[in-house]
Design brief:
The longest helix is centred in the middle third of the chain and has 18 residues, at about 135-155. The chain is elongated and about 95 Å long. About 40% of the residues lie in helices and about 20% in strands. Helix 1 (about 15-35) packs antiparallel against helix 5 (about 135-155). The chain is an alpha+beta fold. The strands form three sheets. An eight-stranded mixed beta sheet has the order 1-5-6-11-10-9-7-8, sandwiched between helices. The protein has a five-stranded mixed beta sheet with strand order 13-12-14-15-16, with helices on both faces. The chain has 16 helices and 16 strands. The two termini are about 50 Å apart. It has helices spanning about 15-35, 45-55, 60-65, 85-90, 135-155, 170-185, 190-195, 205, 210-215, 230-245, 290, 305-320, 335-350, 365-375, 385-390, 410-420, and strands spanning about 35-40, 45, 65-70, 75-80, 100-110, 125-130, 160-165, 250, 265-270, 280-285, 300-305, 325-335, 355-360, 375-385, 390-395, 405. Bound molecules: zinc ion (ZN) (2 copies). One zinc ion (ZN) binds next to helix 6 and helix 10.
């Protein structure tokens, strides 16, 4: 127990880290480019926020939240998704008073108590963006374009954008009625959960992963056919803008997303490269959420992307990311005097921006040189009594074996010159 991380969690370190760093750097640079600012919200929020926003008939709220009472008996929940916290912050800080739109992004831990499988953990990392303050389909297109550009820059292959419109609450009510009738007449073939939940929220049935349900659902009426004029125009305009941007998509009326707050546009980027079809990035418009949480009526769109699943996709497509170790110089030592001097020289080198290492373990000179090779040191030297007395040491190129005598006093300048 003590030496094993809790189920559904994992440590990210070592050879995985360079890929995480490079992907995160691309995300941050892209957001800068699109004028999207970072926001860091707390890891936990009041439970009520998620009941209101995510919706109490969703799987997330019913089964997957990490909810507990704190010492003052407040109900607290570790965030199961990113949008609600950002929406709360948008209202709390009156960001709607600024010139709109407000464009925010985050890279943060997220928590869901669910069965673990590849790329699905109980603590996972989500990259998300949220844009507030416009009902225009141009904002939907902008959000989608961020994801499309990221996917392009990461070089992900075999990925497809699917879009749908869930309409406004009026269209949805019309659709729910049609869907309820359809489900009612096919009720016998559905799983127990679907039979239980279809009265309350028939859309959830479209989300069901049971094979029997999936088959029946394939014949369900399409929400696109139930859209009123305004919602239809909104969807048509979005498609027109995506076309003009050169972003390819397919319309998929089965995409409903597992959250209650979506209105009109929903979308997913789907890939098949990590086995069964999986969603790398999903999002949509949520025009009622800010008002529902106590703010002014505000149009909003966003997406979330699971970093772990993205990493699996990248690894499946490109192979393991393998970065060779590298250090500019290893300053070895012989004897106590040399040992102390080496620490001082390495600190001087580091202050000058040179990647230097010394022996801090107490290895023999031979073992130190082996270690220098292991960490990919480009140069090495060994400091002992003679070197300290003469002020000179031998600088060795670890690749070619070439050696030259250098003044210890000038070692920082020498290394700066060599490294360029
Ligand atoms: Zn509508
Ligand atoms: Zn079902």
């Amino acid at each position: 127990m003590l030496t094993q991380s809790p189920k559904g969690t994992r440590d990210i370190f070592g050879r995985e880290m360079p890929l995480w760093h490079s992907v995160e750097a691309k995300m941050r640079a892209l957001c800068d480019n699109f004028g999207i600012e970072e926001i860091r919200t707390p890891v936990f929020e009041h439970t009520e926020l998620f009941l209101r926003s995510v919706g109490d008939t969703t799987d997330i709220v019913q089964k997957e939240m990490y909810t507990f009472d704190d010492k003052a008996s407040r109900s607290i929940t570790l965030k199961p998704e990113g949008t609600a916290g950002v929406a709360r912050a948008y209202i709390e800080h009156g960001l709607f008073n600024n010139a709109q739109p407000t464009k925010l992004y985050y890279i943060q831990p997220t928590f869901r108590y669910e069965n673990t499988q590849a790329g699905r953990q109980r603590q996972f990392t989500q990259f998300g963006i949220e844009m507030f303050g416009s009902y225009s389909p141009a904002l939907d297109a902008e959000v989608i374009s961020v994801a499309a550009q990221l996917i392009d820059e990461l070089g992900i292959k075999d990925i497809e954008l699917r879009i749908n419109s869930l309409g406004c609450p009026e269209c949805r009510a019309k659709y729910n009625k049609a869907l309820r009738e359809f489900i009612g007449s096919n009720i016998d073939g559905l799983c127990r959960e679907c039979r239980a939940r279809y009265e309350k929220n028939p859309l959830r049935v479209l989300d069901c992963k049971e094979e029997g349900c999936k088959k029946i659902i394939a014949g369900a009426p399409s929400i696109i056919d139930c859209l009123g004029d305004e919602c239809r125009e909104h969807f048509e305009k979005l498609k027109e803008i995506l076309d003009s941007m050169g972003i390819k998509y397919t319309v998929d009326p089965m995409i409903v997303r597992g959250l209650d707050y979506y209105t009109r546009t929903v979308f997913e980027f789907v890939t098949t490269s990590i086995g069964a079809q999986s969603t790398v990035c999903g999002g949509g418009r949520y025009d009622n959420l800010i008002e529902e949480c106590g703010g002014p009526k505000t149009g909003a769109v966003g997406f979330g992307l699971g970093m772990e699943r993205l990493m699996l996709t990248l690894e499946a497509q490109n192979g393991q990311y393998d970065e060779k170790p590298y250090r500019d110089i290893f300053v070895g030592s012989m004897g106590e005097e040399g040992f102390v001097k080496a620490q001082a020289v390495v600190f001087e080198l580091r202050k000058a921006g040179i990647m230097a290492e010394s022996d801090t373990v107490g290895r023999s000179v031979k073992a130190q040189m082996k270690y220098a090779n292991k960490i990919g040191a480009a140069y090495s030297m060994v400091l002992g009594g003679d070197e300290i007395a003469s002020g000179k040491a031998v600088l060795k190129n670890m690749d070619t074996g070439e050696a030259e005598e250098v003044m210890l006093e000038g070692i920082v300048d020498k290394m700066k010159y060599i490294i360029g």
